[in-house]
Amino acid sequence: MIRQIIKRIQWRKNPASISPWRSIHSPSIIEFPSTESSAISVEFTFIRFRFVNPSVSVLIFVCNCISFYVASSSEFSEHKLLVQSLEGCKISRNLSTVIGTHARIVKLGYETCSSLTSLLVTAYISLNRLNFARQLLNEVAYWKFELVSSNWIIASFMKVGDVSIAKNVFDKMPKRDVITWNSMIGGFVRNARFDEAFRFFRKMLSSNMEPDKFTFSSVITLCGRVGALDQAKWVHGLLTEKGIELNFILSSALIDMYSKCGRIETAKSIFEKVRHDDVSVWNAMINGLAMHGLARDAIATFSKMEDENTLPDSITFVGILTACSHCGLTQQGHEYFRLMRTKYSIEPQLEHYGSMVDLFGRAGLLEEAYEVIKGMPMSPDVVIWRAFLSACRTHRNPSLGEVAVSKISHLDSGDYVLLSNTYCSVSKWDTAENVRHMMRQKGVNKSRGKSWIEFGGVIHQFKSGDKSHSETESIYKILERLIGRIKEEGFKPATELVLMDISDEEKEGNLNYHSEKLALAYGILKSSPVSEIRVSKNLRTCIDCHSWMKLVSKVLKRVIIVRDRIRFHRIEDGLCTCGDYW
Ligand SMILES: [Zn+2]
Ligand SMILES: [Zn+2]
């Protein structure tokens, strides 16, 4: 496409604008303004005329020298003009000038000039024309881009999720610096390519490139996102070993990492030791406490923050409202929502309204939640309607659930399942089946839950009913034995959760092999009898697995920590820190 545009521009341009000097000398392989070909031409002309007439020959030689000088200086100015034009485009953000300059570059034969190509690529990127930049990059045969430009190209493509182009550029670079590695690692984390991020970090260390605070900031975030405690401890140790001073970014990243890895006590002790003069450090602590369902601690931290004269921002309020929502503190939550505007002049954003819908919805105050949605100054997004639908499912209100579904323009599998479950919860089996039928007709598959557990520095992932693990046989043996034992303790499976009107045994069979149960069984198989087991799940943990794990913790006398999509559950001696409210 880009070639077509350039061709069109070339046709429109006056052919006379082509330099006569250029029309004689083939410019196709010129890298920088070359004086060599002109010199050879002068030489030939001189040799040709020398034998005809010496005076004419001298005259022609002088003329040629002048033309050579003019041509070379115009060459330099041409190149300079092209550079200036492209530099200017980055500021003026004028696409037609970039395309025009691109056309001129092709016409003048500067296509292979790496400094101009690099400028063109960066100009297209800054104008958000990544397709053009991508095409140009694919055509680059010899990589002579400057380090700064290459780094910028990597960062730009990582930002839009085009990891493969970033990797190509990285591979082609003859020289890399710490910014190159940081752009790659940070880019992988941003695009949720966690394995590659870890791999690149290790590769960086083995290539003797010293990581800096930006590298650590990405890697610490990475450990938190994966919830990998062993890796987290290793990275923290490395940070200390390298003697990198903690700034507010690293401090908040560490607090966040340990919170997300289930170590709220370590997060708290780091918080106590570091400087508190930036709001992000407070936010990390408040959000960490909220995630662990420690609403009272989150509120206390907020008060301390006020005492130390640090002004809260909108993220602080997301944390505090989430904390209230997870613990059913509807009144306090409502009060903080009011204070946001009246005391701190912070206008509530979409996520604050979402927290309020969640706060009322979880507490079963569905009408209040609906009122919040109706009173929003902006239109509610799909996340808000889903939170509302989820509350309708928990509190068995199919009519409001239908309202939520009617507002979600592109229903995904989770929405169908939630609505179908809402009907199941009030025993409307036929209507539930209709929803399932609609889901099948539209070709939407139910998204499966995934759970994972870290063991020996490796993440072991399980899907519901998964039999792909190399130790499947032992895992199922442990699980079957445990199921029998827990049944003896009087456990009743929550069969209403399994969709459709099928027999109770079938439903029970389905529930027994949920991903979190498989991950837990693997944890029991591999770990020592007293150690705690930490399982992560991509969705909210189901009621059945939650009650089952509470009994497992009592029977085996083990601490089980489940990190689901919403929060942490620390299950010990038959009780969970969430107080069964999540
Ligand atoms: Zn389950
Ligand atoms: Zn719980």
TrEMBL record:
GO BP annotations, alphabetical order: RNA modification
Annotated PPR repeat ranges: 177-211, 212-246, 278-312
InterPro entries reported for this sequence: DYW_dom, E_motif, PPR_At4g14850-like_plant, PPR_rpt, TPR-like_helical_dom_sf
Domain DYW, chain residue ranges per copy: 490-582
The organism's place on the tree of life at top rank: Eukaryota
Segments passing through the bilayer: 51-71
Family: Belongs to the PPR family. PCMP-H subfamily.
Protein name per the record: DYW domain-containing protein
Organism for this UniProt entry: Deinandra increscens subsp. villosa
